[in-house]
Structures are given as structure tokens and as C-alpha cells.
Design brief:
four-stranded mixed sheet, 60s Ribosomal Protein L30, Chain: A, alpha/beta, about 260 residues, seven-stranded parallel sheet, elongated
């Protein structure tokens, strides 16, 4: 068995793991699911989590036991989740190369600029749970394999295809395959969430909470959908959190 390299876990709070092609999974469940899908490199754990670490390793992944204080000092943030797993980062496929998903899929979530990792993780987890076919992720969105996205999605990033939207014109590929692009936006002409049910091939676009949907993406949408609100900006409620809105819209638009 290879030796565990503690450098994989050093200064995690401030490192850009994407550039190093490494992902870090926190906690037993997330680590277990990550190890099932990725090339695991090593596990760092406290003594109380050693049994869990050994179950994940199966004798094939090196394990190092340290105290909680030692792991906190090494990682650069307060550690309390029992164990960490380092693994090789999977490659993301561009939408333009996802021929089977484009041709045979029926439900896609398009996220041009979801920058908050917790929102992205929650949306991915909801989409996976409700049977959507894939996530289309713009270049300005959060890293789907970051620690926080992995944790907030409970590793659902490995349960649903995630493809990248390299240029906005990639959406024309969906249009050419008879996808209906619906943008979620509080617009006067917006249709109610239940209108999503009638689409055969639905690509739902969700925007950034501050900036909304980029205009060049919005212009490709044929329809707009909105969740009716009882209070508005004048009452101090300008919109729903994007992850909360996504849960409602993904439920209404789920494959049937």
C-alpha cells in the first residue's frame, strides 16, 4: 500500500484544489461515496473514526490517525467530522461532447453562475434525488468538486452527470435537439411552476441570486417561470433563495 502524503490535507481553507486535481471529502458518508467513484489517495482521521476509515479503505487506501487538534492545525480550519479522504479529481465533460445526454435526456438544470457552494451543493442533491438527468454548469459557477459542494450535496455530484457550459452558444445545441429552455425569473409574463410539467425535454435555467441570469443565456429561453410570492421587495423579501426555489421548480418539473 502506498504511504499517505499529509500534504494532500495541508492548508485546505486557502488552497485551490482544482488546480492540483485533488478533491477532499469530509465525513464518513461523503468519503465513502467519493471513494466509490474516484481514485482515492488516502484517509486522515481521528482515532474514534478509525473503524469507519478502515471500512472505506478495505485495506487499499492508506490511513493516518491524528488528533483533532493536529488535523485542525494541518488543514487550517476547525475539524470535527471524524475523517477526510483525498482523491483524484474527475474530469468534467463539456456539453458539446455529451451526445447521449443531449439526445436522450429529458430534464436538465442549467446553472450559468451559481457561485455559492452551499447553494450549488443543495441544487445538485435535489436534482439527483428527483430524477433529473444532468446539470449544465457555467464557467462562473462554483467548483462542483470543492469541499463545501461535496459536503452540501452529500456527494450527489457523483450520482448525476455534470457537464460544462463553455460558451453560452452551447445552449444552441440543446435547442437544435428540441429542448425547451425555461428561465426562472420574477417577470410579469412568467408562468407558474406547474407549467413545467408539460415539457417533453426541459432545460431549466437558474440564475445567480445577485445578478440573475446572464442576458445572452436569458435570450435563448423560450419561456419564463416564477414561483408566486406573497411578499415582495417592498416587504423586505425580494426573492427566494435559489436552492429553495430550485427545490420547488425541480419537483414541479420532475420527469413523470
Amino acid at each position: 500500500m502506498a504511504e499517505l502524503d499529509l500534504a494532500w490535507f495541508a492548508e485546505l481553507k486557502d488552497r485551490e484544489l482544482r488546480q492540483e486535481r485533488i478533491i477532499i471529502a469530509e465525513g464518513r458518508l461523503v468519503a465513502e461515496r467519493t471513494a466509490a467513484f474516484c481514485d482515492a489517495l488516502g484517509i486522515l482521521c481521528v482515532l474514534a473514526a478509525l473503524e469507519d476509515a478502515e471500512a472505506i479503505s478495505g485495506g487499499a487506501i492508506p490511513i493516518q490517525v491524528l488528533s483533532e487538534a493536529e488535523i485542525t492545525s494541518l488543514t487550517g480550519y476547525h475539524f470535527h467530522r471524524g475523517l477526510l479522504l483525498a482523491a483524484r479529481r474527475p474530469e468534467l465533460q463539456p456539453l458539446s461532447e455529451a451526445g447521449m445526454l443531449v439526445a436522450s435526456g429529458r430534464r436538465l438544470v442549467v446553472l450559468p453562475q451559481i457561485t455559492d457552494p452551499e447553494n450549488l451543493g443543495a441544487i445538485v442533491r435535489t436534482a439527483a434525488a428527483l430524477g433529473w438527468d444532468g446539470i449544465v454548469l457555467g464557467p462562473r459557477s462554483a467548483d462542483p468538486y470543492s469541499r463545501r459542494v461535496l459536503r452540501c450535496s452529500m456527494a450527489a455530484v457523483f450520482s448525476i452527470p455534470i457537464v460544462t457550459l463553455n460558451v453560452d452558444s452551447d445552449l444552441d445545441l440543446l435547442l437544435s435537439h428540441d429542448w425547451e429552455l425555461w428561465a426562472a425569473s420574477l417577470a410579469p409574463a412568467a408562468e407558474p411552476p406547474e407549467a413545467l410539467r408539460r415539457n417533453t425535454k426541459l432545460a431549466l435555467i437558474l440564475g445567480n441570486e445577485r445578478f440573475g441570469i446572464p442576458q445572452d443565456v436569458q435570450s435563448r429561453a423560450s419561456k419564463v417561470v416564477a414561483i408566486p410570492q406573497g411578499r415582495f421587495a417592498e416587504d423586505g423579501v425580494d426573492s427566494l433563495n435559489v436552492a429553495s426555489a430550485a427545490a420547488i421548480l425541480l419537483w414541479e418539473g420532475r420527469p413523470r
